[in-house]
Design a protein that fits this description.
Layout: H1 3-17, H2 20-23, E1 31-36, H3 44-59, E2 68-73, H4 79-90, E3 96-100, H5 102-111, E4 117-122, E5 141-145, H6 154-163, E6 169-174, H7 179-191, E7 198-203, H8 207-217, E8 223-227, H9 231-235, H10 237-246, E9 251-253, H11 257-260, E10 265-268, H12 271-286, E11 303-307, H13 308-313, H14 320-325, E12 328-330
Parallel strand pairs: 1-2, 1-3, 3-4, 4-5, 6-7, 6-8, 8-9, 9-10, 11-12
Antiparallel strand pairs: 10-11
Helix pairs in contact: 3-12, 4-5, 8-10
Length: about 325
């Protein structure tokens, strides 16, 4: 082989190994990704999840301002704001939308007919009407569920009873119009009698209902609460944690952000991992895949996080066996 041919071949091989961002040509179309978060922008957990999503896209070869533009918005739990932001993002002609929480995803499902949508951290995608089946979504939506099945919610009750044995009444904080929450409540209600627990729904739509509901529930003894993941509960996480402490209610939460903010205990999937996985699906969509061909994925690992300081403040002694099983113990 001649020297010039060898150099040309070597240069071509090196170019093929470069990330997509490095290979992008000056005239290449910049792809657009719209992200709608069911959190307030001030929430550190929301910022960490968005950062993980952006970092994973960059690792996959998508460089902000070079071959991709990522537009992130934080409508939180405000449905009208979700709709207004969606209009704004659709005017930018996105190649793919990313939704977070059932509330945000429900709006996108109703208003977006063809643009691919990747949902992240949602409950019961089939029961919520987002996809026909997990294996074959058969539409323009697919993504990542936050629970393997509604039956997993029984684990919440078991853990709450283990860390707070005196609890015999559990307020199940849920958004009653969310189909996944209805399924979660029915599943938990089926398990409650075997744990000698009386289960009561705590229906919430906003901060006022959260405060009124918890205050009224706390008037009777031996109560505890389970908080279901939703844009409303995520947006008001600090309020819920503060009220649970003031009203001395042992509480189990769906993600680690709550015990890290002073809550008692959490059990659920890691949202950071799901946002990284979501970036992988966005990458595949941008490279030509269809949502209908990407199955809905469910968590394979759940995190148990316990705040010992909060337990002590509530007069609870956390069993050593439970501490050993925890993924994180906050001292």
């Amino acid at each position: 082989m001649k020297r010039r041919q060898f150099i040309t071949l070597l240069g071509g091989a090196a170019t093929a190994a470069w990330p997509l961002a490095a290979r992008a040509q000056p005239g290449e179309r910049v792809r657009r990704v719209g992200v709608l978060m069911g959190y307030p922008e001030s929430d550190p957990a929301a910022q960490a999840q968005v950062a993980a999503f952006q970092q994973e896209l960059h690792r996959l070869g998508w460089e902000e301002g070079h071959n991709v533009q990522i537009n992130v918005r934080f409508p939180a739990a405000d449905v009208e704001r979700v709709r207004a932001i969606l209009v704004e993002l659709m005017n930018l002609r996105p190649d793919v939308l990313v939704s977070n929480t059932n509330l945000v995803t429900a709006v996108l499902r109703a208003d977006v007919e063809t643009t691919p949508i990747i949902f992240i951290y949602v409950g019961d995608p089939v029961g919520s009407g987002f996809v026909k089946t997990d294996a074959r979504p058969d539409g323009n939506l697919t993504g990542f569920a936050n629970w393997d099945s509604p039956a997993m919610t029984g684990k919440w009750l078991e853990l709450l009873k283990e860390i707070a044995p005196e609890v015999d009444r559990v307020g199940f904080m849920m958004h009653p119009e969310t189909p996944a929450h209805v399924a979660f409540f029915k599943s938990a209600a089926a398990v409650a009698p075997s744990l000698n627990l009386e289960l009561a729904p705590l229906d919430v739509h906003d901060a006022d209902e959260i405060e009124r509901g918890l205050t009224a529930f706390s008037t009777e003894r031996n109560g505890g609460i389970v908080v279901v993941p939703h844009a409303v509960t995520l947006t008001n996480s600090d309020l819920i944690v503060g009220l649970a402490a003031r009203l001395r209610l042992p509480a189990l939460y769906p993600s680690a952000l709550y015990p890290k903010a002073g809550g008692l205990i959490s059990y659920g999937p890691d949202p950071i991992t799901q946002f990284q996985q979501g970036a992988g699906y966005v990458d595949r969509i941008l490279r030509g895949a269809k949502p209908a061909d990407l199955p809905v994925q469910h968590p394979t690992k759940y995190q148990l996080v316990i705040n010992l300081k909060t337990a002590k403040a509530l007069g609870l002694t956390v069993p050593t066996s439970m501490q050993l099983l925890a993924d994180e113990v906050i001292e």
